[in-house]
Amino acid sequence: MQIIGLFCSFSLESAEGVYMSEAVIEESPLLVGLNEVQKRAVSTVDGPVLILAGAGSGKTRVITHRIAYLIQENQINPENILAVTFTNKASREMKYRVEELLGGMGKGLWVTTFHSMGARVLRKHSSAIGYDRNFSIYDDSQQKSTMKAVIKLMNLDPKRYAIRYCLDMISGFKAQSLAPDEVRPRDFDPKLVEIYAAYQEELKRSQAFDFDDLLFQLVKLFRLNPEILAIYQQQFEYIMVDEYQDTNVIQYQLIRMLSNLHHNVCVVGDEDQSIYSWRGADISNILDFKKDFATPEKGVLRFELSINYRCPPACLEAANLLIKNNLQRTSDKAELMASKQADEGISYYLAPNAQDEADYVMSRIDQLSFENVDLSTVVILYRTHAQSRIFEQSFMRYGIPYQIFGNVRFFERREIRDILAYL
Q: What's this model's pTM, rounded to 2 decimal places?
C-alpha cells in the first residue's frame, strides 16, 4: 500500500482507552504540485485503471509522473513498463519528461507508438510468420506502386478500382483486424477482397510490410505463436495507453492480449475528445473499459481529471453546453472546471455565407490593427485547407499580411500557378 498523505494518524486500543499518535509521512517528490485526484491517479499502480482526462487537465503530467512513480517509489524495472501513444512527437515528449523526473533511472523503458512497438517486435520474431527479419516497411509511394502492379496483373479497370480507394479500404480491413479470408464478400465488392488478397501476396513476395501491417501482422504473430505472446505478457507488468479514445479494433486487441497476465493496464483518454472515427477509432473501447478489463480479483478504478488549467471559465462553459448533447459519453462524468479567473464572454457572429464571414473577420482584424495590436498574435483556425482561399483573397483585398501554417498559400500552389500562367 502506498501512503501519499502528509500526515497519518495511528490508533491502538487498550483496556484503558485509545492511544493516539500522529506521525509525519514525507510525501513523494513526484506527487508535489499535483492536485488530489492527480495524486491518486499517479500512486494507484495495481489493477486496471481508467483516467478520464478532460482537455487541459494535466494528462501528460499524470502519465509521466505515474511512470516515474512506478520506477522510483515501487522499484519496478523500467523494462517491465510499456507506455504507448499515437505519435512520435508525443512519445518523444513523454520519454523526455520521464528522463527529467528520474535522472537516468529509466533506461530500458518502452515509451513508444503502437506502430514502433510493432516494428520492434516483428524485427525479432517475423520469421515465425514467414518473413525475413530484414523486411522492408513500405511508404505511401511504394504501397501505390504495389497496388498499381496488382490492378494491372488482375487486368482490372484502374478507374473503377482506383489505387487510393483500394488502399484505403484495405487499411480499414486491417484496422478492424480482418484478413482477406475474414472479409465477407457480400458486404463489399468481391473483387475488392480479391485485390486485398493479391496485395498481401505481393507484399509477402517482396518481404515487405505496409504501415498497417505493423499491427495487423503483430496480432497474427501473437495468435499463431502463444509462446511469443507469453514473453511479452510476462515482460510488460505495467501497461499505459495514451489517447485511448482514439484506439481502433486492432489496437484494442493488442492491449487485451498484452495485459491478460498481470492486468495492470492504465488507459488515459476522454470520450469528449474522440474525433477519429473516420480513421477507425472505436469510442466503445473507452466507454466499455470497465466491462472489458475488470476481473474478479481486480476491479477497475476510475479517476476523473476535471480541473482545466488551460482555458478561462467562459470557454469551458460554452464547451460543456455543447458536449453535453453527445449521447456517446459516460453519463455520470463531471464537467470541466476552470482553474483560471473569470473573463469576458465568448462572442460569435452568424454569417449567411462564406464571403460575409471572411469580410467580418477582416473588419475585426482591421480594427485590431487600428488599435495597434500586433498582428502576429492573431490567428484564424479553419477546418480544411480548402477554406483558406476565401480568407486569402480577403487578406489581399484589405492589404493585410498573412502567413499560412501547415500548407502553402492558395495562390502559390503549383496547380494554381500553372493555371494563372496559362491564363
A: 0.81
